[in-house]
Design goal:
The complex is a heterodimer of chains A (179) and B (575). By secondary structure, chain A is mainly alpha-helical. Chain A is built from seven helices and no strands. Classes of the chains: A mainly alpha (179), B alpha/beta (575). At the A-B interface, helix 1, helix 2, helix 3, helix 4 and helix 7 of A face helix 1, helix 2, helix 3, helix 4 and helix 5 of B.
Chain lengths: 179, 575
């Protein structure tokens, strides 16, 4: 660490890097938001078919989620509103770190529910051609980059939170604390 | 550019990391370094401890300036762009569906469904079951009386596959306030099964009555003479329907009769006349009459949304031995447990005892009419329910025994074409028992095509006259349905075979009401019981039955005689 000539705390990214990182964060947020909204506005939407088609090591657990209507309703609501809220917060750069982690968890669930692994066949149509890597995984990795190269306090509402936290108390807060 | 940014906004002094932690630092630094576009002047390395790092590098917080606010809110206008685009998209869709709604004047949303409870103080209807085979047992169970084996099987199955919710759905049915008081079956095992079901204590709708077992009658005439029977379910093979229904009408017992209504054309009008004259409530067992999508389809046609309708194509595809009537031969079935003479009283031909013929009766014309009476009857009844076409002017049928060469004499591939010249309409039925490709039921009009299953889809035709303007302005398109009706049911169906899928798609097992899955048998029986109690109409009465039976028998006659046949309404004859 000490040998490295670059300190992200005092030395963040170039303007172009900031633009690229924020654009990626924002685009993923946009995608999450509209995925959520389109599910919320479709009265017939349910995750049942997707979960039931699950394959791979976690298939039994995903199918178990579907078997009880009450459980399914909770899973559906978490998906719909989870996507919408995560998407909105990613776009706004609010609680960026937390929602990035939640988004990664959600995408990991989507990935392991229907992994595009060799030998697994799915009944539902695919909109592209995938082997091991699919768009869920790529979006997940993009979020991982977003997590490690955070931009919420540069361009985003986290900046305001940071500002108020660091001006209101007489002593600066340890950086480990976060909204 | 990077210098500029740092100078302008004081970013050098801002710790931009959300929560710096010791373990992610090196990764971040390494990647950040690698990703940099231009080399930056070296800066002093940060202290080892993150806490100390924050303490050292954070500025004394001079107060938020305008630039901070701008940066914090920089993405908000873009969120606004998303909001704008979203509103625009929904606006376009809304305008489109409003335009369609204005044009078609129809509401396809699934209506809220509430069942009227049947009062325990209502008349308890005492039911006799005549013919307690597979279908008979389903009907008795739908009334609330399951055989203990079925309950056990459902529990075992649900333990293996939690999607199997048949037992819960059955228990969620209403208590219909009926009792199974009598059974007549020529096979001892099946009669005993009805008796076992009649006292089985686990029943839907919180029915906890302690009931007397059903009494077994050897002959249906004895059952019909019993004062302890108000109404009968006739679920025998087709060849016995007319004989038993006419006897029931004479005895004043209400009848729920399975389809096909009769085995022969000659039985149709005597049976219908007997029912009409007796004043009993008669319901033919086309439970798919209860399908919600059929009601919607009727509305679509009645409003003329399809334009001039010239062709209806309806199909049956099944591909397993069970679907081709190769049913199990019960190990206890033999000459002493089956009353073969009584079974044969109305059969086409009397033959020596045959287990195959008894247990797989649909394979022989002596007891039924094969695809015609079994599945064309359902398909025709659906078309008749939706269009009200009645008996066709002519019928032409063809087919053969092409796959199940097992000694049967009915075809396993069967096509029938019905002409309705006075409606400028052809109805085509096409069936095979050796392929499971789903083909559905299509209504083809000049302006639109309607596909009917447990859901409904109406798609405008590219050359439609009525929708020409809407096609031009993109409001409707041949590539997407302009109207759909979906069940609103969000669960999963534990449907596994092609035959089961066929049954499910045609509403022969269940429909969806208010997002709930409900047995169509149950609804169809309930309608019949309601009619017995208060005289409300049934949906598949004797008139509908006559149209069903005559149409099927026209197809059968055409197939057997290898010629086109015609309906002579004046003389009530197929010529």
């Amino acid at each position: 660490m000490a040998k490295y000539p670059y300190d992200p705390l005092s030395h963040p990214y170039s303007a172009l890097q900031v633009v690229a990182l924020v654009a990626m964060r924002f685009a993923i947020g946009w995608h999450f938001f509209y995925e959520g909204l389109s599910k919320i506005t479709n009265p017939y939407w349910t995750s049942a078919g997707y979960l039931d088609a699950s394959q791979g090591f976690a298939a039994d657990w995903f199918e178990w989620l579907v078997t009880d209507p009450g459980r399914l309703a909770i899973v559906d609501a978490l998906n719909q509103w989870g996507l919408l809220i995560i998407g909105l917060l990613l776009m706004l750069g609010l609680f960026t770190r937390t929602v990035t982690i939640l988004a990664i968890v959600l995408l990991a669930l989507y990935y392991i529910a229907t992994p595009p692994w060799v030998g697994l066949e799915y009944a539902f149509p695919q909109e592209g051609a995938y082997i091991v890597v699919n768009k869920n995984l790529i979006e997940l990795l993009a979020l991982f980059v977003t997590l490690l190269f955070p931009t919420g306090r540069m361009i985003g509402l986290d900046r305001l939170i940071w500002w108020s936290r660091n001006t209101a108390p007489p002593e600066p807060l340890p950086a480990g604390q976060h909204a | 550019m990077s210098d500029e940014i740092r100078k302008e906004d004081g970013m050098i002094d801002d710790p931009e990391r959300d929560e710096p932690t010791g373990d992610e630092g090196p990764v971040e630094q390494e990647q950040a370094g690698g990703a940099r576009a231009t080399p930056e002047p070296p800066v002093p390395p940060p202290p080892a401890s993150p806490t100390a790092s924050a303490g050292v590098t954070e500025p004394p917080a001079p107060g938020m300036n305008r630039r901070d606010v701008v940066k914090a809110l920089a993405t908000v206008p873009l969120v606004g762009a998303l909001g704008y685009e979203t509103i625009r998209k929904y606006g376009i869709e809304e305008a489109r569906s409003e335009a369609i709604a204005r044009e078609v004047g129809i509401e396809l949303e699934s209506p809220a469904f509430s069942e009227e409870a049947i009062s325990r103080s209502s008349q308890t209807i005492r039911i006799g079951i005549i013919g307690n085979g597979g279908e008979g047992e389903s009907l008795v169970r739908s009334l609330g009386f399951a055989h203990p084996d079925w309950i056990q099987d459902r529990r075992t199955s649900a333990a293996k596959d939690p999607r199997d919710r048949h037992l819960q759905e059955w228990l969620a049915q209403q208590d219909l306030n009926v009792q199974i008081t009598a059974v007549c079956d020529v096979f001892d095992v099946r009669a005993e099964r009805a008796i076992a079901a009649s006292t089985q204590p686990l029943r839907p709708g919180g029915d906890t009555r302690t009931l007397q077992p059903a009494k077994r009658y050897r002959h249906f005439e004895d059952l019909l003479a019993s004062p302890e029977v108000d109404a009968v379910i006739i679920a025998t093979p087709d060849h016995l329907h007319a004989t038993i229904t006419m006897a029931a009408a004479r005895a004043g017992k209400h009848v729920y009769c399975e389809k096909c209504m009769t085995r022969t054309f000659e039985e149709v009008f005597p049976m219908a006349d007997a029912v009409r004259e007796s004043g009993i409530v008669f319901q033919l067992g086309h439970q798919n009459r209860q399908l919600e999508s059929h009601e919607k389809a009727r509305e679509v046609v009645a409003k003329g949304l399809l334009g001039p309708l010239t062709l209806v194509e309806t199909t049956t595809n099944r591909n397993d031995p069970w679907g081709a009537w190769v049913w199990d031969i019960h190990p206890e079935g033999n000459r002493s447990t089956i009353d073969w003479d009584l079974f044969q009283i109305a059969a086409g031909n009397r033959v020596p005892f045959s287990l195959e013929r008894f247990f797989r009766w649909r394979c022989w014309y002596d007891y039924g009419t094969g695809l015609s009476g079994d599945l064309l009857s359902h398909e025709f009844d659906a078309v008749n329910q939706i269009l009200g076409v009645g008996i066709p002017k002519t019928a032409t049928a063809s087919g053969g025994i092409y796959f199940f060469k097992d000694g049967r004499d009915v075809p396993d591939v069967f096509q029938a074409v019905f002409e309705y010249p006075y409606r400028d309409l052809t109805v085509v039925y096409s069936a095979t028992l050796a392929n499971g490709n789903y083909r559905g039921q299509k209504y083809m009009g000049h302006d639109a095509t309607m596909e009917v299953s447990s859901g409904l889809k109406v798609t405008a035709d590219g050359s439609s006259t009525r929708y020409q303007e809407m096609l031009e302005d993109g409001t409707v398109s041949p590539s997407r349905p302009m109207l759909t009706y979906q069940s609103g049911y969000k669960g999963l169906d534990a449907v596994t075979t092609a035959t089961q899928e066929y049954f499910a798609s045609r509403g022969l097992m269940f429909t969806y009401k208010g997002g709930r899955r409900i047995s169509t048998y149950y609804l169809h029986l309930k309608e019949w019981l309601q009619a017995i109690r208060d005289g409300t109409p049934v949906s598949c009465d004797i008139e509908q039955g006559v149209q069903e039976a005559v149409t099927c028998h026209m197809a059968t006659k055409s197939f057997l005689e290898g010629r086109r046949v015609e309906w002579d309404p004046a003389n009530r004859q197929i010529v």
